[in-house]
Design goal:
Protocatechuate 4,5-dioxygenase, Chain B, two-stranded parallel ribbon
């Protein structure tokens, strides 16, 4: 891939709290918020997504030219299963990611595709589905600190016009989620959500690496797969960059929709 001019600021980094798959449907609060994000980010050459919904042993990257749209959920409205996000893949970007992560073995995967952690928000952010999208899996056998190291090795992609997207939730506890009505968020969910925001804003990646030490973490982030994408976003921040939080709302008491953009939006 061709690098940008050194004088050109890097692309921002985006984290999206994607919530339930129904957020892919039109005319929801979050669909409207996400729809305005592309104007802030500009048009990247490609997108690299780290989604909570592709957890593996070892590392994989989607390397097919035409990734399938994965409907990795059950019990939702039929319209969701009819949705497609036919973005092209980018085998060259997949190879570039493997190069950046050497000597680690990154499997060039031909079987996965785009799961709902990726296509649900992108269906609103880039609805034309004409920007190549690649997913990097989350290796569940690696520690939070190791994921931060992986993220930092991907940093050159920001200068190569690749938008790096983390997709998960600051707070994600389906065991306590209230599916009906609009319940107030649990106190522990609010505290943990605010703590994550504060650490991202302060650039305190070390605190986020040790998030399990927070007194509310056992309830707020029991599922590491939804929290690890936060680490990728925070680790890719550069000194002095702006931080802006979006869709800062907790659904069902214990699912955070908070999103964050890090970078120079004026240059996007």
């Amino acid at each position: 891939m061709t690098s940008k001019s050194p004088a050109t600021p890097p692309l921002p980094v985006l984290f999206v709290g994607h919530g339930a798959p129904t957020n892919a449907l039109p005319d929801t609060q979050f669909a409207r918020d996400w729809a305005g994000v592309s104007a802030r980010l500009g048009r990247p050459k490609a997108i690299l997504s780290i989604s909570a919904h592709w957890a593996t042993r070892g590392l994989g990257v989607t390397a097919m030219a035409r990734p399938r749209t994965i409907h990795d959920f059950r019990g939702f409205p039929p319209a969701l299963y009819e949705m497609q996000y036919p973005a092209p893949g980018d085998p060259a970007l997949a190879a570039r990611i493997a190069e950046l992560l050497r000597p680690l073995n990154v499997v060039q995967d031909e079987g996965w595709g785009l799961d709902h952690g990726t296509w649900c928000p992108l269906a609103h952010i880039y609805p034309a589905a004409d920007i190549p999208v690649v997913q990097l899996s989350i290796d569940g056998e690696r520690s939070p600190a190791e994921h931060v190291e992986l993220a930092r090795r991907l940093a050159p992609l920001r200068d190569e016009e690749v938008l790096i997207l983390g997709s998960g939730d600051f707070v994600h506890n389906l065991r306590t989620l209230q599916w009906r009505g609009e319940p107030a968020p649990y106190d522990w969910a609010v505290r943990f959500n605010d703590w994550v925001k504060a650490k991202i804003a302060a650039g305190d990646v070390e605190a986020l690496v040790n998030y399990r030490a927070h007194p509310d973490a056992a309830l707020a982030a029991p599922d590491w797969d939804h929290f690890y994408p936060v680490l990728y976003t925070a680790a890719l921040a550069r000194p002095g960059e702006g931080v802006e939080f979006l869709t800062d709302y907790i659904l069902g008491g214990s699912a955070s929709m908070t999103s964050v953009i890090i970078g120079d939006l004026a240059a996007a």
